[in-house]
């Protein structure tokens, strides 16, 4: 009988190269987040068409946006708690299936009330899927490249949002607004069945005391013939969280300040993101351009994040992650403020929106990575998902509040300068978190030396 070894699962993953099996998990998680991005922003490009077909105003459509975002918040917060209890894989499969079915059903909505209910239910599935895809990927990725890999997964949201804008510009004029919901439902429906190939997180399996042979099977797929069923698999948990529930971990003394800063940061970024993706097509159309122009310009905002997200991830791995993301927020705020001065020319406007999105979407896309690294395994899915869930309140403010701001009759210069302020607040909150963590580490170092 071979000698039993004690293997720390996280060290095992950190020491191995990024395998083909982990690439497969990456592809699944990327596609999940992309489908999430497509469905999340699907309403923005459809606003003018829905207003025309149903004979309603922007204000009358506001409950549809609000319901979807409330659903996202509930799904994010509930999905994280469920994933920390039952597993990332199970919650992912159920949530993707759920939002695909209700997205398909949205194509048959006959008015605001039906659409409001269906988008609420779709939002619940979307919220649970996003946070758990990020969590699962972070727990399969070596520490040395985690920010780059998880940031790239979150860029799937950018790809989905970008695709939604361009699909709307092509599909809606030819096939009507219903066609976009068909695409937004059928793609994730097919994905939900393929996801049965996804494995559970080995870190979760260890924490939940799964059979050793199941953990060994997954680890051997990462690095063939590296472990046996006789090995004992462990994971190191901080003493402050051992035995605590996931919720009590993220609100514990060690993590509370960082939790609040993460919430503020992503909340502020969501105000900007959802204002742009919800109302930019209408603003552009009102400025004298076509509906197709509005959908394409809206799509440029998340598209810019494809470039910036990978770059920010690199700087997060190599340098201080808080400073890297804060700098992206500040630069994004500058260009957000400049958008209001670009409506005289479509090329200038497109460039400003793209660059603003490059910085702002990159910062937003890096936040789940930062949160996943901040929380321990027992509270990771809950920590990430509650940050995403609370931030949806910012989404509501950006989407529903956008209609109020635009109704005030302010010049576009003033509107976008005001919109830049949340970006500055996000950067400040992030620097506070980084400073607090540095002080904690210094204090721990002094206590260790004294002992």
Fill in the keyword field for this structure.
globular, mainly alpha, transmembrane, membrane, carboxylic acid transmembrane transporter activity, MFS, Growth Hormone, Chain: A, MFS transporter, two-stranded parallel sheet
Written overview of the protein:
The chain has helices at 9-15, 20-40, 47-54, 58-86, 88-106, 112-139, 146-175, 178-194, 202-207, 212-222, 246-250, 256-286, 291-318, 321-339, 346-374, 377-406, 412-450, and strands at residues 6-8, 232-234. It is mostly helical. A two-stranded parallel ribbon has the order 1-2. Helix 2 runs antiparallel to helix 6, helix 13 (291-318) packs parallel to helix 15 and helix 15 packs antiparallel against helix 16 (377-406). It is 79% helix and 1% strand. The chain has one domain (10-450): MFS general substrate transporter like domains (Growth Hormone, Chain: A, Up-down Bundle). 56% of the residues are buried. One of its GO terms (cellular component) is plasma membrane.
Annotate the secondary structure layout.
Elements: E1 6-8, H1 9-15, H2 20-40, H3 47-54, H4 58-86, H5 88-106, H6 112-139, H7 146-175, H8 178-194, H9 202-207, H10 212-222, E2 232-234, H11 246-250, H12 256-286, H13 291-318, H14 321-339, H15 346-374, H16 377-406, H17 412-450
Parallel strand pairs: 1-2
GO cellular component, one term: plasma membrane
Main location: membrane
Protein name: MFS transporter
